[in-house]
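User: I'll paste a sequence; please echo it back and then give the predicted structure.

Assistant: Echoing your sequence first, then the prediction.
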Amino acid sequence: MKLSKYKLMIFLVLIFLASFFLRFYGMTANYPFWVDEFFTASQANVFLKYGLFAFNNTKVYFEYHNIIPHILVATFFKLFGQQEWVARLPFVIIGSFVPLAVFFLARKIFNTVTAISASLLTTFSYLQITWSRQARGYVLQQLLILTVFYLYLKIVKSPKKSTFYFALLIFILILGILTHVTFYLLILALVIHYLFLNQFKISSILKKFWFYLVCIFFLLIIFKTGSINTLIEFYNSKSLGANNLWYYHSFLWREYGLITFLAILGFFMGFLQKRKQFSLVVIYVFIHLLFVSFVFKPYISRYLLPVFPILFIAFSYTLTQLTTLMTKNKNYQTLILITITLFIIGNGYKFVNKPKKYYSVNHDFREIANIDYHQIYNLVKQKIQKQPPPVAIIETLPDRTGWYLGYDYQPIYLFRWGNEEGLVNGLVKKTASVFNDKGEKVVSGTDLKLVTDLSDLRKVVKRYPQGFIFIDDWSMSKEIIDYAKENFKQELYLDHYPLDDNPYSIWPATLYSWGIN
């Protein structure tokens, strides 16, 4: 199927507008952040306060990870003010471009009909819409990955005419490294694919000046931006060596069985029929799935997001091939494919056929703690205003306190594991700590005060006559949880977010206080 430039432009504009509408609709209601979004807002405020000096400021905690998403949120905070919807807006815009990137990549590898189907599926996917509305960089990672694939394939096709595309590819790869550490998996896939295509030219490539220039350039980026710090922390975090295949198999097969099955068929047919182009995405998907299943211990379904646009492309290619078995008429094939695609979307299973004001991050699996934190901290603020300062706050997530009470609020204590046995979602239950000059336990390398056991809690209560402790993680110290139940006043208990459509998304959380009138 061939579209005129005019019809193609109309289609792409409509896809973008539909994508943006579905992702932005109802978002200005400022639904509460969830855990990682609070952290995004906190890091954005580090950039607002220190600018680029945040990279080498030892007085603040700076994460050399998700740098581009944090800068984007900081920029939007500066332009539109600090609200939840503002933090999410850049990713709504970026997420609206992902279906367009899917279209161009699918058309580059296969054909226009497959591209139309894949872009429609991406536009109306519940999963894609949901993660385009979160203040995290997953859809940015998707967009950059798809763009890299497209540029790389253009370069491979016409290497002598691709100076501009090569420079643009290098730039996108740098953005990817600064967006998420797993972007190195994509670079590995590119290297493997390039060596596979040029296995008889390796010796000559090693003699090229540009090869060493690019290597030096990337090494400088890795060291100067702090990416090397992220990699060192990652490999020293005891988060390696896993067997999460059961979890991701359950997610892909139980929740997305139809898409996964037809995508697998699409991978086989695509590899056989378009081996030179499609082998690149096959290599990347294999490396990514291998990494999250057997290398990285923490497991959660959103780690599969980078491969989902590729699944939609492979899924659509299978549908395209099925239509060729029904009829030889190209126009009828197109009509049948679009009809099947719209039927799948209209059915509503894993796809959105009418806009919603709220999309749950727990729609498929119960994974992310999600309650009405507005309600919790509105009560805290009301109580604090009636108390003589200072009022201590003990929290499992200090970034949450900073968002609601201000990032200069003190005293704040982190309620965390000490040195306990076992894992929580693949994470070791251990927090490295030291004592400051006041005899308080603090997180190593920071000024963040820490409560890990009952003796720490008693010291805080003795030092501050008024305070709150918010407990929303029952894997923490049982003696502290029991002590709070028996000796503190229960101010508020919540266990779910009213708009969450997953009935199993229960997250018990209790706000306790002491000395509060």
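The first strand starts at residue 392 and ends at 395. The mean pLDDT is 88.
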